[in-house]
Structure formats: structure tokens, C-alpha cells
Amino acid sequence: MNELELWNVPADHPDALYLVRELESYQVALYGHADPAALDPARFVPPVGLFVVAYHGDVPIACGGCHVWQKEPLIMEIKKMFTVPMWRDHGAGRRLLSRLEGFAAESGAQQIVLESGEKNTEALKLYRAAGYRPISAYVAGRTSINRAFGKVLPRK
């Protein structure tokens, strides 16, 4: 997949919106419901956040963002990670995750957290391979299908 490029984009960029809607459809197919596709673009603007789209040529194939979850100590949260199914296992998700972790570390975050659903086995495998470990739920009211993970970030 040598044509893979990552672009930092506004969270309301048309390609970002397309991929987030695809994520919502994927979650509905897995669970019968999903978190709303809508997000606040202001939460994903540096220095408080970042949104990234992966492209193969000019085709958007994956996305993800991070934003400040907690200010003291600084913890960032990964949101809206998604790779189009036919492009999974080609490295886009890992590269996206690495870009977001780098941004969080450079921003001074000590930790990064995320959630994924128990049926999203590909994502769970990616997060575990990237060093994420299970943590207690950090979002109130989540159901038993949600899995929370965290990772301590290196000091930059």
C-alpha cells in the first residue's frame, strides 16, 4: 500500500464526514445502534485536537481523531477511528493511530484513552498490538459492549 497518505483535515471536511458516517453504519450493522456520527469540529483543531484522513491515491479509506479528554493531568481521547473494511490489514489504522499518539505526546499528554465495542475484533486487535491496555470505563452510562483502553505516552 505504497500510495497511502495521511492528511490532517478539519473534522467537518467532506471526506472525514463520509468516513464517520461509514463508521456509524458499520456500528449499526454490528450492534443494531451506534454513537451519533455528528461531532464538534472545534474539538479536533490543534492545539486541542487533531483529525486525520488516510487516502489511497485520492480515495479516503480511514480516519481518526483525538482531542483533550482531561486537562490536568493532560489526557487525550481517540475518537472515530475507522478503516473501510476492504482496506483493513494494510497498515492504515496503525499509521493513523501512530500519528494521533504522536500529536498527543507532542501536546504534552501523559496518557491517551479510547473505547471500542466488544464485537469490533479488528480494532481490538490493533489497539492491543499498539500497547493499549484495558482500563475502567471512563464514560458514564456506557454499556457492557464498550471496552475502554489506555496507554501511557512517552515524554516528548
From TrEMBL:
Gene3D superfamilies referenced in this protein's UniProt entry, alphabetically: 3.40.630.30
InterPro entries from the UniProt entry: Acyl_CoA_acyltransferase, Bact_Acetyltransf, GNAT_dom
PROSITE patterns: GNAT
The keyword Transferase appears for this protein: yes
The N-acetyltransferase domain, residue ranges: 4-156
Keywords: Acyltransferase, Transferase
This protein's name: GNAT family N-acetyltransferase
